[in-house]
Write a structure and sequence with these properties.
six-stranded antiparallel β-sheet; 18 strands; disordered N terminus; 9 helices; 2 domains; alpha+beta
Length: 329
């Protein structure tokens, strides 16, 4: 996983339309063949006469090292860093771009592509590559968890377990939204472990709760899709927390169905609120030293307490000049 985002930031120069593209392509992400995606990207950029380099990552442990080299090269040559892969890949590269003074482009290749869809970036590699050629820079809010960036969401409890199980199902049955749904149903058959958490929210506001999961969202599209009314708070430089009261298996299935129909926020046993900074601890008597967390679909362990906040500097994302509303669906 990539390290902490830089504390400094540099101004983003105006695009000239001649910047070289330096692409990090994760061969393990997405449903398309990596070689075909590479040929597609190279063809589009080559026909447009734009200089480009594509570095293919074959193994997950190579991702951070490759991304660091690409960022350094882009800085030296005043280029654009582009990440091609799922939300986890986009996160890993964005960690290094944040604060580096470089434009950031994406070629979404994941299952849900919430980050790319939120900004009208096509999931089709050819159309997304074309969009890079006539893109504009949009400053995009980034969340931080213990100083590490997340683009879509970060969570503890049941949600990381759902993601672990989903990845196991993908390895067996392939990447698709239907496989992801079935893996979620299977996970909810097991009684979830309940977390005892203390939340310090804003100035002096403390909440104590027992919940199977805490999810912090930073993606307007995802929050809208599940029906969380605080979603618009993201436009005011805030994050949105969602928790669930302790419930049984049938109730969890009901919440999953509500989310599918954009009605999760209406459920009596779901609580949501917005904030700019929040610290999360376990109970004083048995306070854990670390938490298993998920950030943009990637699992890791972070030391307690957990601190969620909005990054002080936005991510300079390349977005289509004329986005097709269908790419947000």
């Amino acid at each position: 996983m990539a390290g902490t985002a830089p504390a400094h930031t540099a101004p983003i120069p105006a695009l000239t339309g001649q910047e070289p593209f330096f692409v990090v392509l994760n061969a393990g992400s997405g449903r398309e063949d990596a070689r075909a995606v590479q040929r597609t990207i190279a063809g589009v950029l080559g026909r447009a006469g734009r200089r480009h380099e594509i570095r293919v990552v074959l193994h997950p442990q190579e991702l951070e090292r490759t991304a660091r080299r690409v960022v350094e090269q882009a800085r030296r040559e005043r280029g654009v860093v582009v990440a091609a892969g799922g939300d986890g890949t986009l996160n890993a590269v964005a960690q290094l771009v944040l604060g580096a003074g470089l434009p950031f482009g994406i070629l979404p290749q994941g299952t849900f592509n919430y980050f790319g869809r939120a900004y009208g970036i096509p999931a089709d590699a050819e159309r997304a590559a074309h969009a890079l050629l006539d893109a504009v820079v949009r400053p995009v809010q980034v969340g931080l968890l213990n100083g590490r960036a997340f683009l879509v969401n970060a969570s503890v409890g049941l949600y990381p377990q759902l993601l672990e199980d989903r990845e196991a199902y993908k390895q067996r049955f392939g990447r698709s939204r239907m496989v992801a749904l079935w893996s979620g149903l299977a996970t909810l058959l097991r009684p979830p472990r309940q977390l005892h958490l203390e939340l310090d929210v804003e100035a002096g506001q403390t909440r104590t709760l027992r919940t199977p999961t805490l999810v912090v969202g930073n993606n307007l599209l995802q929050l809208e899709r599940v029906g969380i009314e605080e979603a618009e708070a993201l436009e005011r430089s805030r994050l949105v927390a969602m928790t669930v009261r302790p419930v049984g298996t049938l109730a969890l299935y009901g919440l999953l169905i509500r989310g599918a129909f954009s009605r999760l926020g209406e459920a009596d046993n779901v609580s949501s609120f917005d904030f700019s900074c929040m610290r999360v601890r376990g109970p004083r008597a048995s306070r854990p030293r670390r938490f298993k967390v998920a950030m943009d679909g990637e699992i890791s362990w972070l030391p307690a307490p957990l601190e969620f906040k909005v990054a002080p500097h936005p991510l300079p994302l390349l977005v289509p000049r004329h986005a097709d509303p269908a790419d947000r669906a």
